[in-house]
Amino acid sequence: MSLVGWTAERELLTELLHAVRAMHSTLIGVNSKSGKPPEVPKPQRPRTLVDDLRKRADRDEAERVIALFNPRPEGAAS
Q1: What is the pLDDT of residues 42-66, one digit of tens each?
Q2: With contact defined as beta carbons under 8 Å apart, do 78 and 72 qualify?
Q3: Domain edges within the chain
Q4: How far apart are CA 41 and CA 53, in angstroms?
């Protein structure tokens, strides 16, 4: 490339163009969704004692209702 015709004005305009392009590229990278990492999946809520007790109570209630309709003799093996 020849420097004939290269002036201070062209140098300044070239530097301005490079700066604007760099800013444009940075803004696109920062504001685009593809530039963001995927959202980290959140862990499930751990079971609590209350959940366990509620589940046990529901199961006991269901077994009690089933026993009402399906009585077994006292000495029968299960």
Answers
A1: 777 777 888 889 999 999 999 999 9
A2: yes
A3: 8-34+47-69
A4: 28
